[in-house]
């Protein structure tokens, strides 16, 4: 591209910015052609849900389902109040407030890109030290569901036991200052104490994170923290609040310059647009102590078999993401779609999942594990979804332990193949050494990156130094067959490289 072309391109981008319609309530009646608007009056919405952790996924998933319900003229008293507990959440709140909490959702599909405005969120609680504003808002009787997306690593669980860890500093701080807590869970309990005293009653506490038995985990964390504060109050929480299990699914890339430019092409000026694939799934246990919206009318599945859906998704999709991410990062590939264009990585995904993971996954109504593998293959391969390898690889210490290590344990117990699963762990170890095969640096990408990188560096000479992380591998490291296979794969990755190691595995 020559200088003149660059100038013209820059001027065209500036023209689009000038002509773009600023996303606000006042613009809803004059949206650009091709942008789907609202069929409901936002001034008539009333709050019913407070959501903590209001990132892209929530706005493309839970908020979209509520929006669809509102579009049908249903349940307008279940609008969403956004909230956060980290300082960076306040930046997001200010951006959202400037556009009246509206979001542009851009669907990325190979057959065509489309945009719609979602208006199901009507407010966002200011983020303040001690979370006084958040506690006060959750204390109000109109809030009947408090939902959360705080990532798999945000539940203060011991990495080795997956049980609530009361020794973590944030938890200790909540116990010491229960009226000015640090964590979302401490804020929830402070609000519940207020509601108990006022006779307002409990609310449902709903996890929307990718954790096996996320409702069970949520119950354990909240009631265990309450027990440390006041055993009598803890009993009240156990007896009155509900904690439904759920499974959520939609691929939602992070927002960057590409996404900002994409929404401008639709004639909109949105500071925080969201892009997403043409697929969503929400499986819910019908366990809501203070009522719920009629989400079954917009495609949400209510069932007491959430675990079966959850296991299929966590093991095949989330586990599949980790299978792909490590070799892709080592080879310097940027997106998951690009990674699926690499024949060896795509073949690795399909072979490991079909041969070693799918046998440990149950059918669900309308879907077998093998059919789900094909579905996930198509979703991962969508060239319109620029889902970065870095985003998918983030927090592998939580994602591997949640999605892949349980399968390894079951496979060892059942005597089924583990060769590919051992290779995936070797690839993760190789990635965490922090360098690609071209010599470039892999930036820290895990809350415990320093420890992972230290052990990965030692494992270059002695692979057992990686498996020796008991808080991650526990008893898996003591299985002679798994340890030997892992050892062989990791040595091959360092001496022969990713391509040759994958070739040897795929031809075995």
UniProtKB/TrEMBL annotation:
Limits of the Mannitol dehydrogenase N-terminal domain: 48-297
Mannitol dehydrogenase C-terminal domain sequence ranges: 305-494
Top-level taxon: Bacteria
A Pfam cross-reference name: Mannitol_dh
Keywords assigned by UniProt, alphabetized: Oxidoreductase
Lineage: Bacteria, Pseudomonadati, Pseudomonadota, Alphaproteobacteria, Rhodobacterales
Keyword flag Oxidoreductase: yes
MF GO annotations: mannitol 2-dehydrogenase activity
Record-linked InterPro entries: 6-PGluconate_DH-like_C_sf, 6PGD_dom2, Mannitol_DH, Mannitol_DH/Oxidoreductase, Mannitol_DH_C, Mannitol_DH_N, NAD(P)-bd_dom_sf
Keyword Oxidoreductase: yes
Gene name of the encoded protein: mtlK
EC number: 1.1.1.67
UniProt protein name: Mannitol 2-dehydrogenase
